Amino acid sequence: MLRMSGFSFAQARDPQHAVELFAGSDQAAWLAGGTDLLPAIKLKVQQPKLLIGLGQALPRTFEEQGGELVLGAGLRLSDLARRGPEPLAEAAASIAGPQIRAMGTLGGNVMLDTRCRFYNQSAHWREALGGCLKASGDICHVTGAPKSCVASQCADTIPALLVLGARLRLLSVEGPRELSLAEFLRYDGLRPHAVRPGELLTHVILPQRGGVGASAKLRPRGSIDFPLISMSAWARLEGPEARIEELRVAIGATNPQPKVLPGIEAYIGQPLDEERIQAIAEAAWMRTRPQGSLAGDVAWRRQVTRVFVARLLRRLRSQHQEIA
Ligand SMILES: Cc1cc2nc3c(=O)[nH]c(=O)nc-3n(C[C@H](O)[C@H](O)[C@H](O)COP(=O)(O)OP(=O)(O)OC[C@H]3O[C@@H](n4cnc5c(N)ncnc54)[C@H](O)[C@@H]3O)c2cc1C
Ligand code: SF4
């Protein structure tokens, strides 16, 4: 049986109270839905001494502000799946299973740590292997080198938020600040987020409204598993030819940093027809190099990227044709 190590607990009343409780502690952790943190404590991949409960402290609201949609970080994944804009709703609906979506939050998903088959294991398992760069060792078992950790960013909302151009609002005792999601994500499996100690994610801001969106995910079991590939696409298309005004595709669960596929701007003004769809899918294949930090053959995961991009783009075109 996996037992949790001891910790103390403090319940925050609101975001300001939460950051004050955290201030000065180098061993505190935020506890939102706990669906990732509590298993991580059992596996001893995280061992905080103080948990700060966010249960009632974070907003769970969908608010319109100056033409933007502002989402509270405390929104449950199940709420996002029901009421979120596409492609975020479809991405949220694909996370874990219904019980976890009812507890897990948007904030906890955005702040999800990177994952690796050599790391998300029990302490005994990791010790038997001699640890790794992310767990008191000096080598990466994926690359075989002592340099960098290539654990994968598996949070399924991230590709959707990237294509929607999301910004994050963070709060610390020094006050609030905003940064774009793209600035927040780093190619570093050890420290995948550009946050300072004690910063709390309070809101996710979506400037992008309207358009058509869709998400897709490769995973071992469709009912519950983390992704082996996670992707989202969003577009603004025009007229019966589905001419591209804006189009973004983002791919996650391949390495520490999900990214928007570059080069698609070249297709602006052109119809989203089968020829362009194949060309963009080919470009996605060329530019995707999944790391072996997740299970599943790397070449197969790369091939799936091409197939999924083509399917997503066809779905965007059909959605547009239905509403046009
Ligand atoms: C069986 C199983 C399957 C899963 N499948 C998936 C999956 O398919 N896709 C997926 O994306 N996830 C999956 N998860 C992981 C998890 O359930 C989700 O990522 C969920 O959204 C985490 O949210 P939470 O509120 O429970 O976060 P918590 O577990 O409470 O926290 C997660 C991390 O975020 C930090 N944190 C939480 N809220 C904030 C905040 N507001 N500001 C700053 N830091 C914060 C915590 O300190 C912690 O480090 C799965 C988990 C399990 C157990
Ligand atoms: S990618 Fe390498 S260093 Fe990172 S968790 Fe996996 S084995 Fe460890």
Structure, described:
- Helix content is 30%, strand content 21%.
- The chain has 3 domains: 1-57, Uridine Diphospho-n-acetylenolpyruvylglucosamine Reductase, domain 2; 62-112 and 151-206, Uridine Diphospho-n-acetylenolpyruvylglucosamine Reductase, domain 3, CATH 3.30.465.10; 212-323, 2-Layer Sandwich (Enolase-like, domain 1).
- Strands 4-5-8-6-7 form a 5-stranded antiparallel β-sheet. A 4-stranded antiparallel β-sheet has the order 9-10-11-12, sandwiched between helices. The chain has a 3-stranded parallel β-sheet with strand order 1-3-2, covered by helices on one side.
- Helix 10 packs antiparallel against helix 11 (298-323).
- The chain has helices at 15-22, 37-42, 77-83, 88-93, 98-103, 106-110, 123-129, 157-163, 181-184, 274-287, 298-323; strands at residues 8-11, 28-31, 50-53, 62-65, 68-72, 167-172, 175-180, 200-206, 212-218, 229-238, 243-252, 259-260.
- Residues 29-37, 39, 54, 58, 73, 77, 95-96, 100, 103-105, 107-109, 111-112, 154-156, 200-201, 224-227 line the site of flavin-adenine dinucleotide.
CATH top-level class of the largest domain: Alpha Beta
Strand content: 15-25%
Summarize the biggest pleated sheet.
Answer: 5 strands, antiparallel
As a whole number of angstroms, the C-alpha radius of gyration is: 20 Å
**CATH fold-level assignment of the largest domain:** Enolase-like, domain 1
**Domain module tally:** 3
Provide the low-confidence segments as ranges.
none
Strand tally is 12
Question: How many DSSP H or I helices?
Answer: 11
Q: At CATH's second level, what is the architecture of the largest domain?
A: 2-Layer Sandwich
Order of helices and strands: EHEHEEEHHHHHHEEHEEEEEHH
Give the rounded overall mean pLDDT.
96
